[in-house]
Amino acid sequence: MQFEKTFIDGLLLVKPDVYPDDRGYFFESFNKNKFSDGGINDSFVQDNISKSVKGTVRGLHYQIGEYAQGKLCSVVVGKVLDVAVDIRFGSPSFGKYYAVELSEENKNQLWIPPGFAHGFSVLSDVAIFSYKCTSLYNKQSERAILFNDPDLNINWKISNPNVSQKDLQARSFKEIEKDFLY
Fold first, then answer.
1. Is 131 designated active site?
2. Is 182 known to be catalytic?
3. Could you state, in order of their start, the residue ranges of all structural domains in the chain?
4. Which residues contact 37 (CB under 8 A, 6 or more apart)?
5. CATH superfamily of 2-175
6. Is the distance from CB of 79 to CB of 103 less than 8 angstroms?
7. Among the options 19, 25, 61, 137, which is catalytic?
């Protein structure tokens, strides 16, 4: 298993060792000891799965305070563009984003620690997206940034995005509060 640092401090691309044969394949999607050796020592308390159709954008979501979440993201079926935006005030990469394709083919995962807004767009006909969280969901602590905020200028690699009404009413990047300090 490889843990690759990205240009944003704290974000890691996880590449599992995959063992294919004529029956299919096998790989460990999580191993506490290997993740600890790779620099991820957080405990996971909740697993989430979503199914979405092509062109869907979910995000940019995050939680604050004691419910701030780290997320280990992967795709079981299909392909997505996974996006993490640094919202840690004082960070050298504050307001910058990292985007990576996660798919059932590459089996890669993205580790997103607390202090990032997260979202993804669906590039395949259907995607089943899975993510492990370090904190439980708490409605009062949830926040969102508008997915198409011009200050972030994220290229979601889709046209005519399918976005929930809730996400369309999210805050602009300039309006976020200093919930995370670097």
1. yes
2. no
3. 2-175
4. none
5. Jelly Rolls (2.60.120.10)
6. yes
7. 61
